[in-house]
């Protein structure tokens, strides 16, 4: 199986156990290069690169030069959109915030921008659910247009911690947005928790008989980005998926990668996502040989 480029998400060193003393972005770049990664995925939350700080093309190009000086590329950008939850604000407000991120991506030659629904999972009255669902779909369809005009792919990362985390809802939203520049970011840990444990599903849990591979089958053809990490079947802080080091959880990666080959092998980048993992500094070094060993078995 072809080895894509491997990147490491910078949020692993600024969220959770690192929140009180986050690594600088340059310290993170140096670590990623030493650990053998081909690139990084940028967390757009302070103190890591933010469009309001890198607010000119010149500043953004200087940042790109710093990343390149470490021999690294950039696989994607994950902006901070907490002030504009897309199902609850005017589409124009969301698009205004997104435009900053598209300009940021263009200057740094980033081809993927990651979004989520921001809102927590909750049980809504039927009419309110429909209203929010339609607003989200409408907003993200317009957002996909905006991103397309800048040559950037818009990808949605579903997860237990945010609204629309049931398999049927995930598929329904992709079908409702129905835009060639809108794809799913398939995170292996989130996919496991959303399909096999029903984590934080409002009301009755929706668990698939075929688990995460059944969810993959339903989304096949609509996967635009890929995050790899294990899952031990628990939630971090009762909010979102625990991102467990490879080989310590329940995911059978050889089986998963073989099944998903048709979609993920053609992607330029795979991102290793150690969000909230306290042992990232040790285990992110072990991740590349772990996955490379599986790829050799599948070749």
Topology:
Layout (H helix, E strand, L loop, with lengths): L4 E5 L15 H10 L4 E6 L12 H13 L3 E7 L11 H18 L3 E4 L10 H24 L3 E5 L9 H11 L4 E6 H10 L13 H9 L3 E6 L6 E2 L3 E2 L11 H12 L4 E4 L7 H18 L2
Parallel strand pairs: 1-2, 1-10, 2-3, 4-5, 5-6, 6-7, 7-10
Antiparallel strand pairs: 8-9
Descriptive account of the structure:
- With 299 residues, the chain is α/β, with parallel strands linked by helices.
- 42% of the residues lie in helices and 16% in strands.
- The protein is built from 9 helices and 10 strands.
- It has helices spanning 25-34, 57-69, 91-108, 126-149, 167-177, 188-197, 211-219, 253-264, 280-297, and strands at residues 5-9, 39-44, 73-79, 112-115, 153-157, 182-187, 223-228, 235-236, 240-241, 269-272.
- The strands form 2 sheets. The protein has an 8-stranded parallel β-sheet with strand order 3-2-1-10-7-6-5-4. The chain has a two-stranded antiparallel ribbon with strand order 8-9.
- α1 links the parallel β1 and β2.
- The model has no long low-confidence stretch (mean pLDDT 98).
Task: Write a brief structural summary.
The chain has helices spanning 25-34, 57-69, 91-108, 126-149, 167-177, 188-197, 211-219, 253-264, 280-297, and strands at 5-9, 39-44, 73-79, 112-115, 153-157, 182-187, 223-228, 235-236, 240-241, 269-272.
